[in-house]
Amino acid sequence: MYNMKKQAGVSMWGWLIILAMTGVMAVSALKLMPVYLEFYTVKSILEDMQKDPALKNPTQEIVSATFRKYLDINNVNDLKRSNYTIEKQQGKKAFTVHVMYEARKPLFANLEIVAVFDHSADIGGAQ
User: Fold this and answer.
1) Whole-model pTM?
2) Where are the alpha helices (DSSP H) in 2-124?
3) Residue 89 carries which DSSP code?
């Protein structure tokens, strides 16, 4: 015969710990979702600029203005000018746009979630 006392499930404290961990993970995911969506928007903008025939033989000013325009159209407001560089490729009529930034979102009290993003794309030249 089985002893019913030995067949115990998860206690109330066990359920509270599981619920607390699930809650922290859910809040973290909800805080990080907009950050990742913004990064994938920036990545998509750079990919679209690579395919843009109007940017086949660009100047640095045109690349910069086009990138800012795409950021404005897609409502990417958190990316500052100091977070990206546009460098001319040596010996080519092309530029490398390098985006590197970190996004910080508050989690609880003085805890923050930090996501670091780094992506670059070659714009112009032979496409």
Assistant:
1) 0.78
2) 12-51, 60-73
3) P
